[in-house]
Amino acid sequence: VARNPGEIEFHQAVREVLDSLGPVIAKHPEYTDSAVLRRLCEPERQIIFRVPWVDDAGTVRINRGFRVEFNSALGPYKGGLRFHPSVYLGIVKFLGFEQIFKNALTGMPIGGGKGGSDFDPKGRSDGEIMRFCQALMTELYRHVGEYTDVPAGDIGVGGREIGYLFGQYKRITNRYESGVLTGKGLAWGGSQVRTEATGYGTVFFVEEILKTRRESFEGKQVVVSGSGNVATYAIEKVQQLGGVVVACSDSAGYVVDEKGIDLDLLKEIKAVRRDRLDTYPGECRSAARYVPGRPVWEVPCDIALPCATQNELDGAGAGMLIANGCTIVAEGANMPCTPEAVRLFTEAGVVFAPGKAANAGGVATSALEMQQNASRDTWTFEHTEHRLAEIMHSIHDRCLATADEYGVPGNYLAGANIAGFTHVADAMLALGVI
Ligand code: NDP
User: Fold this and answer.
1) Nearest CA to ligand 1 atom 11
2) Is the CB of 154 under 6 A from ligand 1?
3) For 47-83, how does the pLDDT look when each residue is reduced to its tens digit (9 = 90+)?
4) What is the topology classification, in CATH, of domain 195-353?
5) Which residues are catalytic?
6) Is the distance from the beta carbon of residue 295 to the nearest atom of ligand 1 less than 6 Å?
7) Is 360's C-beta closer than 6 angstroms to any atom of ligand 1?
8) For this chain's UniProt record, which GO biological process terms are given (predicted)?
9) Residue 149 and residue 67 in contact, taking contact as beta carbons nearer than 8 Å
């Protein structure tokens, strides 16, 4: 804490991992002897830079850009870029730290990193978004590359932004280096299923949890927070598997639609028009309501999927879910549940699937995109989705097997933290003190 003052989200993420590692450290003194934990908590490299750009009115704007290259023991740094006014070093470091263990859990050869900017894309024209992305890449290109560091999207960064970033990288370097970014469009090096992967993967993970109880999504009531990329495709997959998503949200409130969210309308409002969720009730055929300023967790459900942002589900939200009989919470977002919420779920016997396991499908499919780029190949949607489902199945089983091995059966949080940690720690031991 003294070494990284004020970085509260980073402290929270580190504490959550360290809290799980007691049994591992007791069993493996070699991790302590070689200071693996202390090395893991210190990024290999952090880059902070000025991003100057000109808005539509001709005013010069200055934002701050970040790339934290956290750990490359398993492969090139890999992790998204976030554009949101709340971005500062503490958020980028928490995301980069989580990414190390998540990427290890996928079993793919990718290290951990994260980046972004305090740029607020809301209300910006397409031209402003393009000029901002070009300005950011004008510095970032020095630090990224197929074998070095491979960014992708995150909050505020989707296919459009990745296109502008990739265009500028190609222009500056004069190289068509497809493997430098993931989340690309299908016509220019992207992979099928990458857009859907994080949301779909979270739902595949929950499907595995349900299978352990001989249940399925059929007829289950589900609440999803957020209405961006992860939320949208989580809703799509739940519906395909027979569940009913009764509510979703944005940062201003939530929509409740007892008949089930109209996904075509949601995509039209959020992804095509880039509009606000409060326009939904006026345009849908059912009796949907928009409830401003309230947490979506007050809507009764069997399964909750927080898919918006960090610390969005606190103790009060957890209390509402538990009181209404929710039995599974799976994190589609990164660290959306506060430590208090996680404690309450554990005490109440609610199954809790942490983001580093449940939302790993996005980065896993990014690694599949890198594989396709490296072999100059393209796979079908069916094949890629099948690979994603297999990966989520295997992460699920690995979390459970590890939790069993370390004496905490059924604890997905401990299983994910320990399995991710041992995988990357063993690689770090093998590579020596670097
Ligand atoms: P998007 O930008 O597509 O959507 C973000 C959603 O979350 C929007 O509905 C937004 O509402 C809401 N939101 C953002 N910030 C806040 C806030 N401070 N308070 C309340 N709501 C907020 O992002 P993604 O869907 O890509 O990402 C969502 C989460 O999933 C993040 O935690 C991200 O790190 C994580 N994730 C994403 C992956 C990916 O592949 N995209 C991979 C793995 C994890 P509004 O429009 O009102 O701001």
Assistant:
1) 250
2) yes
3) 999 999 999 999 999 999 999 999 999 999 999 999 9
4) Rossmann fold (3.40.50)
5) 114
6) no
7) no
8) glutamate biosynthetic process
9) yes
